[in-house]
């Protein structure tokens, strides 16, 4: 079982309920994004939780980004970044090997139209797709699999966000972003695992703005994905979004996305 969640600041999430969630989860691996902390800044129950091994890849820009992988067993190997000088120290990608499966935690830049943030997002996407192509070939040549979990910051289809009509010119649902994600699936050959299990429903959404009543009205976006090589996707048994029972019980503006894979 693998879970991914953008924690929107790991120290803040820890105060709001992440620690209790981690203690209760049945996941074997948990991928976190937007941790925004160095290991030394985290309380012991987050930096060294009982029963977990922690790999943290912070950003070189203090208080920004950051990704992590929590696992029940120690990883065989860890790689930070994806061989791109601009982004390898930006806290946006870490990959850990567990036997025949590599699990990555990704925090793709969020972007903002007509700003340098969108340009950064575009540069990231341009560098990341060739890596995905190359990495799939490498793992499959070795009889292994890869799953890239995380906040991809793109809603792929109209079914992936509630108010798609009013967001067609906003970052996260731009035609060129959606086309890029289609290339991840169609050209690079990866599988959107949750969508493959739940092909005919809207959502399930994984992010809701804190503004207004977006959460109460389920006016969300599905931007948190588990994207895997085909053989691993074929072993996916069920998936769910662990949506909080109420707005006041949320410990992030995202919800954990969990997939159960068969052995």
From TrEMBL:
The keyword Manganese applies. Mg(2+) binds at residues 6, 34, 151, 153, 253-254. The active site is at 107, 151 (proton donor/acceptor), 254 (proton acceptor). The record marks 254 as: Interaction with DNA substrate. Keywords: Hydrolase, Magnesium, Manganese, Metal-binding. Probably binds two magnesium or manganese ions per subunit. Its EC number is 3.1.11.2. One of its GO terms (biological process) is DNA repair. It comes from the Bacteria. Pfam families: Exo_endo_phos. The record marks 153 as: Transition state stabilizer. It is an enzyme of class 3 (hydrolase). The keyword NAD does not apply. Gene3D superfamilies: Endonuclease/exonuclease/phosphatase. Belongs to the DNA repair enzymes AP/ExoA family. PANTHER family: EXODEOXYRIBONUCLEASE III. This is Exodeoxyribonuclease III. It comes from Thermobifida halotolerans. The lineage of its organism: Bacteria, Bacillati, Actinomycetota, Actinomycetes, Streptosporangiales. The gene is xth.
């Amino acid at each position: 079982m693998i879970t991914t969640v953008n924690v929107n600041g790991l120290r803040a999430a820890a105060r709001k309920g992440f620690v209790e969630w981690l203690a209760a989860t049945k996941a074997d691996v948990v991928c976190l994004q937007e941790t925004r902390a160095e290991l030394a800044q985290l309380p012991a129950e987050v930096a060294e939780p009982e029963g977990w091994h922690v790999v943290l890849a912070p950003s070189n820009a203090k208080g920004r980004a950051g990704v992590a992988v929590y696992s029940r067993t120690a990883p065989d190997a860890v790689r930070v970044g994806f061989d791109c000088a601009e982004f390898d120290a930006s806290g946006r990608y870490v990959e850990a090997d567990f036997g025949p499966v590599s699990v990555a935690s990704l925090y793709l830049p969020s972007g903002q139209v007509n700003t340098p943030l969108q340009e950064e997002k575009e540069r990231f996407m341009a560098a990341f797709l060739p890596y995905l192509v190359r990495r799939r070939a490498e793992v499959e040549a070795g009889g292994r699999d890869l799953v890239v979990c995380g906040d991809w910051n793109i809603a792929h289809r109209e079914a992936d966000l509630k108010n798609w009509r009013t967001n067609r010119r906003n970052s996260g649902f731009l035609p060129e972003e959606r086309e890029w994600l289609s290339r991840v699936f169609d050209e690079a050959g990866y599988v959107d695992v949750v969508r493959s299990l739940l092909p005919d429903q809207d959502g399930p959404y994984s992010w809701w703005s804190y503004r207004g009543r977006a959460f109460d009205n389920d006016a969300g976006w599905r931007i948190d994905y588990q994207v895997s090589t085909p053989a691993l996707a074929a072993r996916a048994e069920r998936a769910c979004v662990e949506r909080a029972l109420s707005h006041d019980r949320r410990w992030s503006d995202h919800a954990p996305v969990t997939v159960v894979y068969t052995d």
